[in-house]
Amino acid sequence: MSQPARLALLTLALALAGSACLHRPADDPNILIVSMTNGPNNLDPRYGTDDASQKVHQLIFDNFMELDDHLRVVPKLAESLEHPDPLTYLARLRHGVRFHDGSPLTADDVAFTFNQFLDPAFISPRKGGYRELQSVVARDPYTVVFTLKQPFSSFPINLMMPILKKGSGADAREHPIGTGPYRFVRYAVDDRLELAANPDYWAGAPKNSGLIMKIVPDDVMRGLELKKGTLDMVVNDLAPDIVHQMRTDPRLQVVQGPGVDYQYIGLNLQDPKLKDARVRQALAYAIDRDAIVEYLRRGLAVPAVGMLSPLSWAAAPDLPNYAHDPATAMALLDDAGLRDPDGDGPAPRVTLTLKVSNTEFNRLQSSVIQQDLRKVGIDLDVRTYEFATLYADVLSGNFQLFTLQWTAGALADPDILRRVFHSKQAPPDGFNRGRYSNPEVDAALDAAGDAQDPAQRLELFAQVQRLIARDVPYVSLWYKTNVVIAQRNLTGVHITPLADFYFLKDVARVAAAAN
Question: What CATH number is given for 60-172 in this structure?
Fold first, then answer.
């Protein structure tokens, strides 16, 4: 189906849905219904690392440390974090914090949570973040000491961990107990997850009675449910075309803000056709990112220049932006020896294959990229896959080009540059899926990990970003603009750069005026 035809069908469907009434728990109209695209895999934050699980963790638990709007690590359950020497971090806890069962939060709970990742028998996808950690000790009821094996300046990002009650076992997977703004009530798999407001929450009781996290997998259906009023809110889970339609509905409000999610094209630098940096630079110049943002994203994105969003404290300000320039792209291809064999004729300079997931937006975006590359003499074979198949190919290096998106949680600290671009971080050890290798980048990343001076660390990360921008192991596409669509009768709706769910505690329903 073409985009205009799909848009017309969507407009009709939303219009037909507009006359339905709101259905919610009859005993409490101040319970909010919020959509999720899929249910959480694991309610225990030691194991659940998928996006849906982490969003629920934000509501039931509190992180020990958190990120501010510039992606700097700041205290949350910790009241302060000191760094008296290169191997030691000393944290002091907030007083007066209680778990949902009434027991107080102490340093023993914090030590219990982190020490599990040091247990060789403990299996968790989070363990990799604690390889530099030697020990965690509760010095007194409100002081915790973290000792490292070696200096590692990015270690505080790993303290962004939800804290569990000491002794939490396997039952936390299905019946979690945290210190967060909401208490777990029940989870009907693939249908809904119910949470009740925690009236004793240390940061102030939520302004609503609770949440129903309704699982609605289909994009159009989420739009219909909003129009009908059977959903109160959708956070970042609507296609740009649907958001565009929603803006005209007087019963809905649209709240948006800058985000850090980053979409890119990954390149296999071991492929003979992509080894030359000039070819990779040509790809970057050939793609019209502004058009993708304006027309496909409906303005709900910003053209990207590198992996770190400008919102990040570590983003380098002076990176080349590879503005759309087909002439420069063709000149670079000529210099690389990929001359057009027949001038303006149909024969391509080179043929490449792009692998993408089978969502409609990715298919549309890939068609635009295909047309852009054709204009400079590159024939692009676009192949779509179920996400699991695509991801398996990416991990195994079975690709020339692929499109994926890094989300906010992964981009929280510039150490992600090491995980993605250091030559020793190829899968399964890290995320260097394109097998990029540059000794200068490796040396700067190693030095940034050891640096204790913040200014030196910042300059090293800037140096890394400049080198990567020159080498183009990724073609940057865009940073996502975060969007919340909510019923007009809700107050307190806002969104952070990380698009987390914590703000839901501030949302309340305005009582209808009496007739």
Answer: 3.90.76.10
